[in-house]
Design a protein that fits this description.
6 helices; mainly alpha; 72% helix
């Protein structure tokens, strides 16, 4: 019964996100509104983390399964995607390398900066 209650709480925030999407004129998906509402409720203490912890963990564990229908849809769209294959692969490789390089540089900068005390001397 505990899981049912937790899922109902999450579904309530999802429903509130749907309502906001209908009421507000912004091009924001309902799921984002729902996540922001849930985050705000957790942050302010209106909702305790224990009220949704187990259901949230379960949903995170099964998240990879949610990508299977999207992958199957890509297989159906292969004729439309085939001419774009080379540009998409190039973009993926370049963006992956760029993200790795920037992440590495930022990490090294933070590690060097964090290794010094307030006087500028290495610890």
């Amino acid at each position: 019964m505990r899981y049912a209650k937790q899922f109902l709480i999450i579904l309530l925030f999802t429903f509130l996100g749907e309502l906001l999407r209908v009421l507000l004129p912004f091009p924001v998906p309902a799921s984002i509104y729902g996540l922001l509402l849930l985050f705000a409720a957790l942050l302010t203490g209106v909702l305790k983390i224990e009220a949704v912890r187990e259901a949230g963990k379960f949903l995170i564990e099964i998240m990879p399964l949610m990508f299977i229908p999207a992958g199957a849809g890509l297989i159906d769209a292969w004729p439309a995607l085939k001419p774009l294959l080379l540009p998409v692969v190039v973009i993926m490789v370049v963006s992956t390398v760029a993200v790795m390089a920037v992440s590495g540089c930022v990490t090294q900068f933070i590690m060097r900066r964090g290794g010094k005390d307030k006087g500028g001397q290495a610890v």
